[in-house]
Amino acid sequence: MQARRFDSIDALRGAAIVWMTVFHFCFDLDHFGWIREDFPGDPFWTWQRTAIVSLFLFCAGLGQAAAVEQGQSSRRFCKRWAQVAGCALLVSAGSWFIFPNSFIYFGVLHGIALMLLIVRFSAGWGRWLWLAGALALAPKFLAFEAHAAWPSTLDFLNTKPWNWLGLVNRRPVTEDYVPLIPWLGVMWWGMAAGQWLLRRHRGLLARPLPRATAPLAWLGRWSLSWYMLHQPVLFGMFWLLLSLR
Question: Would the pTM count as exceeding 0.85?
Answer without folding.
Answer: yes
